[in-house]
Specification:
Cytochrome Bc1 Complex, Chain D, domain 2, three-stranded antiparallel beta sheet, 28% helix
Length: 542
């Protein structure tokens, strides 16, 4: 089979540049978009599969869109697939290349198309631009006044990065050499095709089977006690993990990162990267040659593993200089890759930067409700939409827990970090950036949709007591482990109780529409980040 890449360098650059895409969508060629069925010059080689044009017609939000990719030289029926990136929510592509639907979000939606006729395969980067429309002036003015009153700001631009460190970190992130039995990588539970999570309620680390995502299982049903959080924008986060056990508390002067092993002279995201490596159920495991080592010596042994591969030695030298193949630099490299997954061009960001058409009226109503009567921003504030406080929002408990409680299956959350019973069942307020991509939600993945989450805030104890777990991805294994709810119901956060319980169904839908507008198109389905191979030669989770 012959494979042709249309603008391969452009394809590689496309997905790294989309995060900085211009605020107002325009045609991908800089001018008026042409139909995919029209010729873009040349017409291709006779008898060789060719995509007639990579330009897609401009789309308008909430207006039905339809176009069809046109090919020449096909030996038989052409089959198409999107292998990285995505079309906007509401728009789909058939295997024959017909694209249609009602786009729900504005922006530049880049994706990598792979098409084949069974003999020739072509790969091409495409962009579907979705423009906004002028909305209701009253809704617009009301939201603008609220934004000014609360001084709401967009997320900062992505940080400048050392690309050699990013390249090293990408390989480390996807290489299973960093697990004790070399069977899981960071990416196993934080996969770019799954919103940098794993799509599971509770993660499955070492010893798992079935690849990544909802098909993953464990022969003896060993679960990580908590849901895998996404890595988007992690470089801006001062405190990490659901129980904030690693970080620098906001408001404190800059200094070492506090960790369970004491202060570390690393930024929080780099310090955080060291702890899944030594967690028995996440990456370390048992029954391998490094079993007897303490955590510090174990990490050093992982670096010794890496040093056996010349590619890693050279990458460390490029990233940090000769003789700097250390545990700290390994962590800094992983953090550099994670920081490269910073996205600042969601419809909400473009709206805050002045593009009034970036959001629909429904999304604007949702934002007005979110920052107004619903009081969501009491905790979900700031550019990341979190203030990093901890709260008990009475989420039912299930799974293995952290060894606490009468049955040893409860998770006391932030109490585990500060040793204060007043913080029992409290968990860190998560960032809502790209939240539509990161289901399931809550510290244990209890809820599968944003509607469930918002309705939990509305219905509170009713939601907790009615929870059965039967809708969970891992319901068969986890629903039977559901614990009685009376303990978590005893000490709900006062701020949680202040969220009004009389939100109408329309208001709930509006808030969810706003939450979807926190999605940066460039953050969706980052499969382009997956390396074909890693220096260890171990299989890569695709």
């Amino acid at each position: 089979m012959r494979t042709f890449t249309l603008g391969l360098l452009a394809c590689t650059a496309l997905f790294s540049l989309l995060a900085a895409a211009c605020d107002t969508p325009s045609g991908p060629s800089g001018g008026t978009s042409t139909s995919p069925g029209s010729s873009s010059g040349g017409g291709g080689t006779p008898g060789v599969l060719t995509l007639s044009s990579t330009a897609l017609p401009l789309a308008t939000v909430n207006v039905f869109y339809s176009t069809a990719l046109q090919f020449t030289g096909a030996a038989s029926a052409v089959t198409c697939d999107i292998t990285s990136g995505a079309l906007p929510p509401g728009v789909n592509m058939t295997t024959s290349g017909s694209i249609s639907g009602n786009p729900l979000l504005t922006g530049q939606w880049g994706f990598q198309l792979t098409a084949t006729d069974g003999i020739t395969t072509i790969v091409a980067p495409l962009v579907l631009n979705v423009q906004g429309v002028a909305g209701n002036p009253q809704i617009e003015n009301q939201l603008r006044q609220l934004i000014a009153q609360k001084n709401i700001q967009p997320i900062p631009q992505p940080p400048a990065l050392n690309q050699a460190q990013v390249a090293l970190g990408r390989n480390l992130f996807f290489d299973k050499i960093l697990s004790g039995s070399e069977d899981v990588a960071c990416a196993t539970c934080h996969h770019p095709s799954l919103g940098y999570g794993d799509g599971l309620n509770l993660s499955i680390g070492v010893g798992g089977t079935g690849g990544v995502g909802p098909g993953r299982d464990h022969p003896t049903k060993v679960f990580v006690p908590r849901n895998a959080p996404a890595i988007y924008n992690v470089g801006f986060m001062p405190e990490l993990f659901w129980d904030k056990r690693v970080g620098v508390p906001p408001g404190q002067p800059p200094g070492p990162t506090q960790t369970p092993e004491g202060p570390m002279n690393l930024p929080p995201d780099a310090a955080q990267a060291l702890f899944p490596l030594v967690n028995i159920t996440e990456m370390r495991g048992t029954g391998h040659s490094l079993d007897s080592l303490n955590d510090q010596d174990y990490r050093a042994a992982l670096v010794t593993r890496l040093a056996q591969y010349n590619d890693y030695v050279q990458m460390f030298e490029s990233a940090f200089g000769t003789g700097n193949m250390t545990v700290d630099n390994m962590a800094l490299a992983i953090a550099a890759f994670e920081r490269s997954q910073t996205f600042s061009n969601a419809p909400w960001d473009r709206y805050l930067r002045g593009d009034s058409n970036a959001m629909t009226d429904q999304q604007k109503r949702g934002a007005d409700m979110f920052f107004g009567p619903a009081r969501c921003d009491t905790c979900h504030s700031g550019p990341l939409l979190t203030n990093f406080t901890t709260h008990n929002i009475i989420i039912p408990q299930f799974g293995p827990g952290q060894g606490q409680g009468a049955q040893g299956r409860e998770d006391f959350g932030f109490e585990n970090t500060v040793n204060n019973q007043q913080n029992r069942y409290q968990f860190r307020v998560p960032s809502l950036r790209n939240v539509a991509l990161t289901a399931p939600y809550m510290h244990n993945g209890a809820f599968g949709t944003l509607n469930e989450v918002v309705n939990h805030y509305r219905n509170k104890a009713q939601s907790t007591n009615a929870f059965t777990g039967q809708n969970m991805v891992q319901a068969a294994d986890l629903a039977p482990t559901l614990l009685p709810t009376q303990n978590v119901l005893q000490t709900p956060s006062p701020l949680f109780l202040q969220v009004p319980g009389n939100l109408s169904p329309q208001q709930v839908n509006d808030i969810v529409a706003f939450l979807n507008a926190l999605t940066d198109p460039a953050a969706v389905n980052r499969r382009n980040e997956i390396p074909d191979t890693v220096p260890s030669g171990l299989p890569v989770d695709n």
